[in-house]
Amino acid sequence: MPEGNAVNGSVESRLREIAALFLRLGITGFGGPAVHIAMMEDEVVRKKNWLSQEHFLDMVGAVNLIPGPNSTEMAMHIGHERAGWKGLVVAGLCFIIPAVLITAVFAWGYRLYGNLPVVAPFMYGIKPAIIAVIVSLMVVLGRKALKNAELGIIGIACALASIAGLNEIYVLFGAGTTGMIWYSIQSIRKRLNSLVPVVLLHSSANQLSSLKIFGLFLKVGSILYGSGYVLFAFLDTELVRTGMLSRKELIDAVAVGQFTPGPVFSSATFIGWQLAGWPGALAATLGIFLPSFVFVAFLGPIIRKLRSSALMSVFLDTVNMASIAIILSVCVGMAKDSFQDWRTIVIAIASFITLFTFKKLNTAFIIAGGAILGYLLHLV
Known about the structure:
The chain has helices spanning 11-28, 33-47, 53-64, 70-113, 120-145, 149-163, 168-186, 210-223, 228-240, 247-259, 267-299, 303-308, 310-338, 342-357, 363-378. By secondary structure, it is mainly α.
């Protein structure tokens, strides 16, 4: 029986709980996928006890193996565990919609006035606070994921490979395959299975019609692995180089994705609006998020079955460790950009100490505190 169903209560009451949680996370979840996952772990593992830490780790590994926005897919997985396919849909929509609406407001204003509000002083403090939140989560999850010395060695190798620039999907599948091969060598009775990532649609957006925009972003949601920055690199090729979008508009879309809460992929709403107004925003939003609902609906029910197989359990354990290593490697890159001077280092250290001193404190307060402290120190 799924852990989420072990708690008493009707499906309707669980759906209300899911809606309330993910609406709140969708409104307060600043900082991108890694910090969203940190906030979800804090809520559903530590506070609400909806999931065990091991199963949460399995889901983190699973969403890294499929295309699309990782934190959005995590929300869907959690909803599915708690209340079946209805929970999947409710969690996904409640997490996505606040970000999309907020981004749409910025997109509307941007199209009218051609610029964004001044947000640099707040981003100055948000970035180091986000790094502290991510690292603190990885310390907790890393302790759970590190089941033996071999996993530790693989994790270090994955972190180095990711820092060196190797595509994260190769790192994940390479780590999982290495773990299975090692297990097979150690246990002759097991045979090696393989997983192949799903690759779906291929379309082109040569015109600014809503249908073409939908096709482009449907392709993105179906085949794109990685963070929001991978999304922007992809769109630079598809839109900027073809003259459909200016590079300034793309850079501003990156900024919107950073300082608005919820999924970074909601930047698609902003870009779609610049291409074709609100119909383009709607088409881009539907296109980029629709595949995630399909992938999670397919993958969610089989995660536990994979864990019941000894060989595939090794695969999941290794992918979990690789996922943590990749997230930590992302923090290295973020730190290079975020630690500009002594002020940002102070904010990161203060955030880190606060997290470990007040373990039940909502991470949204850490990020908000970082933003305020960044603004105040920026004036010094």
